[in-house]
Each structure stands twice: as structure tokens, then as C-alpha cells.
Amino acid sequence: MESIIVKGGNELGGKIRVHGSKNSCLPILAAVILTDDVCVIHNCPDLTDVSAAVKILEFLGCGVERDADVITVDSRTLDRCDIPEGLMREMRSSIVFLGSVLSRLGKAELYTPGGCEIGLRPIDLHISALKALGADIDESHGKLSCKRNAAFSGTNINLSFPSVGATENIILACAVSKGVTNIYNAAREPEIAVLVDFLNKCGAKIKLKADGTISICGVEKLHGCEFRVIPDRITAATYMAAVASAGGDVLIEDIAPIHLKSVISVFEQAGCSIDVGKSSLRIKSPEILKPVRNVRTMPYPGFPTDAQAPVMATATKADGTSVIVENIFESRYKHVPQLIRLGAKIRVEDRVAVIDGVKKLYGARVEATDLRGGGALIVAALRAEGQSEITNIHHIDRGYEKIETALGSIGADIKRG
Ligand code: EPZ
Known about the structure:
Layout: E1 4-7, E2 12-17, H1 22-31, E3 38-42, H2 48-59, E4 63-67, E5 70-74, H3 85-88, H4 97-105, E6 107-111, H5 124-133, E7 135-140, E8 143-148, E9 156-158, H6 164-174, E10 180-184, H7 190-201, E11 205-208, E12 214-217, E13 226-228, H8 233-246, E14 248-253, H9 261-269, E15 273-276, E16 280-284, E17 295-296, H10 308-315, E18 321-325, H11 336-341, E19 345-349, E20 352-356, E21 365-367, H12 371-381, E22 387-391, H13 394-397, H14 403-408, E23 413-416
Parallel strand pairs: 2-14, 3-13, 9-10, 17-18, 21-22
Antiparallel strand pairs: 1-22, 1-23, 3-5, 4-5, 6-8, 7-8, 10-12, 11-12, 14-16, 15-16, 18-20, 19-20
The chain binds ligand EPZ.
């Protein structure tokens, strides 16, 4: 099994580009089937989750061509409405194919999704919203059999939690339909706004209102378009954590700084100096990292749960005690025992993690437990004395494009072994 080997101690310098956003690319790849046309999507990251989405599109009968970061999808040949369990289990985002397949074909047969084991990750909000729109959904033994009934039309949906995936599924289910749907308490993550931009470019009529409500006026048909995926804000946050942890002065390019406001303020709290440009930022680490107090993960624009693990890794070496509260997922501290193996001092009580900074971390053999936890282990290993080996790196390859090449390009001693 492949692993990533890191020799800690190198300071980082130079510049690094951030790849396209996994969590923006995936719902757009589900949305393309609504167009019954050809769509060309640029800046798609080279990730196993994106490959999984391509496999689903091909299974459904779409023609898919991939040339570097450009994915061209011809969904005129789509000819089936079922997705096998194996493909569904490869990632969490497969669940948003429910909304788009149901909309395009009037029925959908799929399974509950896979993805990072960071909590139960139910899909009750997805199901109840689609039922409210007029879908008949039978769930048994993990299988979802869905049919759009005659009454399927716009309605008002109040989400009890601003779920990203449920918001995406509702948008995909009713962009091409009759009537108007208003989603109250919708997710406000940037990836939602970008999905709406994509669909509106294809002819949809979707409005993001100032109060966060999303109003979708169903249309009869969409056409294809050419579109560019936004930069990955979580990879940008992870690279920032790497510089803060290893020490150095790096220009991080091809980012959307506006999406990183809550992350930037945490690294400034840690003592980093950050100069923000139009589509880049320069981060310089301090001699001694300060602790980060009261980092609470929240729905956007709050501090992103996906950056929690990388920031925790940085905090392990701070001069003092940091406190992190994980409010989004109930089991997102699986990386803690692995960080402790590297010499970190961390206590977890339910949702609260208390990190007592230590003078040194020591290289060890650790295993990635999920995507962002794996990123955190690399961040910590960059600063550990000696060599670390990170196993189960398939988790990492789901969301970080060639991370060893990227970090190696700014001076890290890191290789895939
Ligand atoms: C998306 O997951 C992201 N994944 C996650 O990123 C991210 O952590 C999460 O949003 C929150 O920002 C993709 O976009 C592919 P949610 P999603 O629905 O849609 C509960 C990464 O590392 N919930 O907003 O699954 C749920 O259990 C991944 O890139 C329900 O209870 O997140 C969780 O506690 C990890 N019922 C909370 O809501 C539902 O029906 C947030 O989940 C749906 C969700």
C-alpha cells in the first residue's frame, strides 16, 4: 500500500498554486446532466472523488472526455437512472446525483453515499425536501428508489440545518421543473453560489437572496455551457497550515481570498503575517506560533469544519493552549490519536479539543483516518523531528491533488513511497 514519507524540519518558501475546488466541481458534474447537452468544465482537480463522479456519469451513459483539468460531458446520451452501490459508496457527493437524475428522468435508483467517516452523515434533510417537492422515495437496506409524481412542483422548504448537500440536491431537483421553490435556511457556502452561477449560465432562473433564501423558478429546459470551477478554499487553508507549521514565507496563488476570511483571521491570531492580494496571499510564519483560542467550526461564513484538522495540527506546536470546538460533525476528531503519536498533547471532551502546545513533535508511523485528518498529519509531520510515514493515503488523494508534489515544490522533504 502506498504511503507518504515526510522528513520534518525544512522551512517552506516560494510559491504554490491551489487546484480547483473538489466541493464545487462535484455538484457541477452532477448538474451537467440537467442540460441534455454538452458542457465543458475547466479547472477540475485531479482527485479520486472527481474520477468517481466521472465514473458515475459514464455509467449513466454520458460521454465524458478529460484533458488535463478540462472535463467535457455530453449528457445527450444519458440512458439510465440507476447508480450501483459500489459507485455510490466511493464518495459523499454521489448523493447529489439523486436530484439531477430524478429531475432529468423522473426516477432514480441509487444507494446511500460513502465519504469520510466523520459522523453518521444522514440524508434525512435531502429525502424530506425531495418528498416535499413531490418525489415518492422508498428507502430500504441502503437503497433509494425514487419517482417524481404528477404533483411534483415548486414549494417552500425550510432546512432545519443549512446542509450543503441537501441545498445542492434541492436546487438540482427543481431547476428544471414547474413552479417556484424557496429554500429557507439554505447553505451559504461559496460552492452553492457557484453551482447557481453554473445553472443560470445554462438557462436556469435561480436567485440568491440577501437573507440567504434561495429562490428557484423552474424552467422547461437547460442548455450546455463552458464554465470554470473556483479554487479550493480548503486546500488553500491546508497549505496555509503547512507554512505556519513548518515555518517559512510562501505565496499561495489562484485562490479566492474572500472565501478564506475566517481562516485568515485564525492564522493571524496564531501570529502569521498575511498579505492578501486579488487572487493570492502571502503567508509568513512567526518565530513562535501563538495558540488559537475558541476556533469554532460553523456553517459558512463561519470557520469551515474542513479546516479544523489542519489548524489543529498547526496548533500542536503553539506556545500555549489552543481550544477548538467542532460544531458540524459529531465525530471529526479521529486524527487526534494520530497527532498524539507524533508527540502532540491534545485532550478531547465531546465536541471540544484542547491542544497544549509542545516544544517538539517526533516523526512516527501514522494513518490517515479521513481526508482532512490526513492533510493534518502531513502538516504536523512537516514540523516533526525525523521521518514520518503516513499510511491510508487514499483518503488524502480524494481531496488534495498530488499533495507531495505541491508541498515538495515549496521545499518540503516529502515523497510518495
Ligand atoms: C459538504 O458535506 C462537504 N462535502 C464537506 O466536505 C463539508 O465538511 C460539509 O459540506 C460542511 O461544510 C462536499 O461538498 C462533497 P452537510 P455535506 O450536509 O453536504 C448533518 C471535505 O472534507 N446533516 O452540510 O455532507 C450532517 O450530519 C468534506 O471536503 C443531517 O443531519 O455536509 C452534518 O452534521 C467533508 N442530515 C451537518 O448536517 C442531512 O440530511 C453538515 O452536513 C444532511 C446533513
